[in-house]
Write a structure and sequence with these properties.
The protein has helices at 2-13, 41-44, 56-61, 66-79, 87-92, 128-146, 160-174, 177-182, 193-207, 210-225, 234-241; strands spanning 108-111, 118-121. The relative contact order is 0.14. The radius of gyration is 20 Å and the shape is globular. The mean pLDDT is 92. The chain is mainly alpha-helical and 242 residues long.
Length: 242
């Protein structure tokens, strides 16, 4: 996947700007940290013209707004027999960028540890990416709801990665063509090798690309906590790993 993506980037930007045999410059991959390459999927789509799993146009056509994205997300979880979002969630969640103040728009889910106040903070746009992100964040909230009655010291994930795994498991399930057909965002399901490969590539650009980034992050954090890096070395050591 790395070599194929590098080849496509060289086609677009020229071989003078993209090393055909070396690493890919992070800023070419559509994400500041190169942790996900999904934003350049259109550039590397194996079979342009075959069925796409990007339902952004369908969402716009059906006049989705942020609230509808959240409602569809909740419907997904309740269809599995999971818990409805409490009223406090709907009262206090920040679904869109507010007009009256500056905020950090990075999506996140919050447990206020009172057994009823759970929120998501994000600046939703009407795209498939945000549909997936909303399911991911609501997956966190579902996890909070499942352990809300435990003693406070047990109201957390088994480890930070476990919480993320719950969220991603949900968003991966939502992104399947079968589910998108079921909720009316795909008109028909194309059972073809080309459509399957397009779908698998779209998932790989997000999830397979993330694996080396996650491994790098753990290496970096471990070395900091072990005292192997001094404060003055933090930036240099990061780029050594990159």
């Amino acid at each position: 996947m790395h070599a194929y993506t590098r080849f496509k980037l060289a086609e677009k930007y020229g071989k003078s700007r993209v090393n055909e045999t070396g690493p890919i410059a992070a800023h070419l991959l559509g994400n500041m940290w190169a942790q996900s390459w999904g934003n350049i999927y259109e550039l590397v789509e194996p079979y342009p013209g075959a069925q796409s799993v990007d339902v952004t146009d369908a969402m716009v056509e059906q006049k989705y707004d942020a609230m509808r994205i959240f409602e569809v997300s909740e419907e997904f979880f309740t269809s599995l027999g999971l818990i409805e979002m409490p009223q406090e969630f709907w009262d206090h969640t920040m679904m869109v960028r507010p007009d009256d103040r500056e905020v950090v728009c990075h999506a996140s889910a919050w447990d206020f540890y009172n057994k009823k106040d759970f929120r998501i903070k994000q600046c939703t746009d009407i795209t498939m990416s945000w549909l997936s992100t909303t399911h991911h964040e609501m997956g966190h909230v579902q996890y909070y709801l499942q352990y809300k009655d435990q003693p406070v010291q047990f109201r957390r994930g088994a480890n930070p990665g476990f919480h993320e795994a719950i969220g991603d498991l949900m968003s991966l399930s939502v992104n399947t063509p079968i589910h998108l057909l079921k909720i009316g965002l795909l008109d028909e399901l194309h059972n073809s090798t080309e459509a399957d490969l397009n779908y698998l590539m779209s998932i790989a650009m997000d999830k397979i690309a993330f694996l080396p980034f996650a491994y790098l992050m753990d290496q970096y954090r471990w070395n900091i906590f072990e005292g192997n890096y001094t404060h003055s070395e933090y930036n240099a050591r990061w780029w050594d790993l990159r």
